[in-house]
Every structure is written in C-alpha cells, then in structure tokens.
Amino acid sequence: MTANPMGSLKDWVATYRPSPDASGAGPKPIAAPETDDPAKTAQPTASWWPSVAKLTMNGIPIAVISVFLMLLAMIVTAAVVHVRRVRRRE
Asked: What is the dihedral sign for C-alpha 82, 84, 89, 90?
C-alpha cells in the first residue's frame, strides 16, 4: 500500500476542529443550570402524600398482594367455619 485510501485528514481537521481564537482559550465553559431553592418550591403537603412515581412503583404491587392475601384469609375463614358446622352436626 503506497497511499492512504481515506486521503488526507487535513480538510477534516480544518472543518471540524477549528483552531482556538487569538486569546488561546479553548472551548467556552458551559454554565451550570440554575436550580431553584427547594424551600421555595416545596409544597407543604409533599411530605404527607407519596408522589405519583412512588404510588405507581410501590403502591400497585402492594395493593395487588394485599387483595390476594385478603382473599386467602377469607377462604381460610370460610373453610374453618364450614368444618366447625360439619363437626357440630355429627
């Protein structure tokens, strides 16, 4: 191979990597976004009620498990009552 198949990179460097300005400074620093003071933006009820994200991620699974546990408790209670009634008749 005698020549680079991609050609010279001088044009690419000139286009995509411009030389710094006369002061010699590199790229300008990006300022951090201003953040609001949490004390000013916080709602008084925020600590009382869970957020929508917490309700979605935790509340729904807890509700489903609770419903199944209540159904299980009702089935066990009905079975115990049924067995007691059958034993009384004997």
From this structure: positive
The whole-angstrom separation of Cα 61 and Cα 42 is 28
Query: Radius of gyration over alpha carbons of the chain, in Å?
Result: 35
Q: Under a CB-based contact definition with an 8 Å cutoff, are residues 26 and 17 in contact?
A: no
Tokens of 44: 């008084």
- Of 8-12, 81-85, 86-90, the range with the highest mean pLDDT is 81-85
Q: How far apart are CA 44 and CA 90, in angstroms?
A: 64
CA 47, CA 39: separation in Å to the nearest integer? 13
Biggest CA–CA distance in the chain, Å, is: 106
Report whether 52 contacts 58 (CB < 8 A). Answer: no
pTM across the whole model: 0.43
Nearest to residue 50, comparing CAs of 63, 34, 69?
A: 63
